[in-house]
Amino acid sequence: MRRPTNVTLPDELVAEAKALQVNVSQACESGLARAVAEVRRARWLAENTQAIEDHNARIERDGLILDEFRQF
Fold first, then answer.
1. CA separation (Å) from 60 to 6, 17, 63, 67?
2. Which keywords accompany this UniProt record (predicted)?
3. Cα–Cα–Cα angle for 62, 64, 69, nearest 5°?
């Protein structure tokens, strides 16, 4: 499902985009999707940093669980 949305953009930017045949809707969607992904990634990392650090410390301290079976 898609939702019509009004977005305010600088006149010069819209004019240049049209002159270059850039699809403004697609460009806005792409930029918004990228921004959402970046924020989600940053939040996930902030929420999981301690667990990742703890896991890495355990591996440094105890080694890998099946390390004795590694053939390389």
1. 52, 52, 6, 12
2. Toxin-antitoxin system
3. 125
CA quadruple 31, 37, 41, 42: dihedral positive or negative? positive
How many Cα neighbours within 13 Å face the side chain of 55?
Answer: 6
Per-domain boundaries in the chain: 17-63
Q: Which residue has the tokens 């896991």?
A: 55
Amino acid at 8: T
